[in-house]
Task: structure prediction
Amino acid sequence: MYKIKKSFHLAYGHRLLNYTGKCENLHGHNGVVEVTLAAAELDSRMMVMDFTELGRKMKTWLDDNLDHKMILAKADPLARVLLEQGQACYLTAGSPTAETLARLIYETAESLQLPVRKVAFWETPTSMASYKK
Result:
């Protein structure tokens, strides 16, 4: 099995619902996303996928949806207020934890028809959540 991994950086804000502690307040992170692709066979270029193509597809989605956005749960009462004020938000079904974001990005990579095997979401340099099927 061949594997490749590409990293992406993003800045975002969020807060957690149904949580007691610092993260119940609005705050920001400089996160790192690692997308791992895998293939049993290499393509005609002897690649799992061209890093440039992977970068273009994932970075475009990350930039359009998560980078420099406030990521909030749809049920968060602040979401409506911020959207009404013209603030860029991305709304998640549940609380926007690192685990939620890792799965969201994994499923997005799948929808982009990438041979994704794992997504790691580094919320801080020492705190990471990952998702794989």
